[in-house]
Amino acid sequence: MAKEIAAELAPTGVLRAAINMGNFLLVTGRTPSGDPEGVAPDMAREIAQRLGVPVKYVPYGRPGELADAAGSGVWDIGLIGAEPQRAQKIDFTPAYVEIEATYLVPAGSPLKAIAEVDRTGLRIAVAARSAYDLWLERNIKQAQLVRFEGGDQTFDQFAAQKLDALAGLRPGLLGYMAKLPGSRILDGQFTAVQQAIGTARENAAGAAFLRDFVAEAKASGLVARLIERHGVTGRLTVAPPA
Questions:
Q1: Pairing between strand 90-92 and 77-81?
Q2: pLDDT tens digits for 157-193?
Q3: DSSP string for 93-111
Q4: What is residue 1's predicted lDDT score, i.e. its pLDDT?
Q5: Helix or strand or coil: residue 46?
Q6: H-helix or E-strand spanning residue 88
Q7: CA-CA to 36 of 20 to 30 Å: which in 29, 66, 116, 175?
Q8: pTM of the model
Q9: Residue 102: partners with Cβ closer than 8 Å, 6 or more residues away
């Protein structure tokens, strides 16, 4: 079985791990050689060690680009937010960490609660094809989603166009709040982005191995130690058992 798993997850003899470089909580820096550093790269490295193969990182600037490459043979595992649209091509583990998603509203906004944001005539700025954008696409019924490329551009246009709310991950919104005097972050969350590990759907043995790895990594405290090691305590939460 071990050989079968390695053949599925590392067919070239190297585990090619796709990393979303746009998630600053999971990728917190780079090594002197240019490899990504953070919770996600460390999870991939640990998987490679279990398989007995080297790891090679395949970086993507945005999560949608990573998901688009699923099944193309470019990467073997992808560390990305698990969403139903992506699961059509990717077999995901349960989440290993969660990140709260909520809204930032500008100074003077009458909006006080998350449920008030989905109203006719309101415009929500969101980074295109982020995991929380995919959730909003399924769940927002009345407000208009206004999409931009990347978090910083989304914030800039939210402010410039005077949109009603900015959707995002709470840790990122805290940084934007400091740039926009009088702005507020709404209490609670509209969803929690489930950061998981995926592989091509045909890799049945490999997917089962990854599910077991994630369950063990959470139960053993490995995920919690990585969160502490990379200084993201309080911003990333270990996901509950599946």
A1: unpaired
A2: 999 999 999 999 999 999 999 999 999 999 999 999 8
A3: PPPSEEEEEEEEE-TT---
A4: 62
A5: helix
A6: none
A7: 175
A8: 0.81
A9: 114, 167, 168, 170, 173, 185, 186, 187, 188, 189, 190
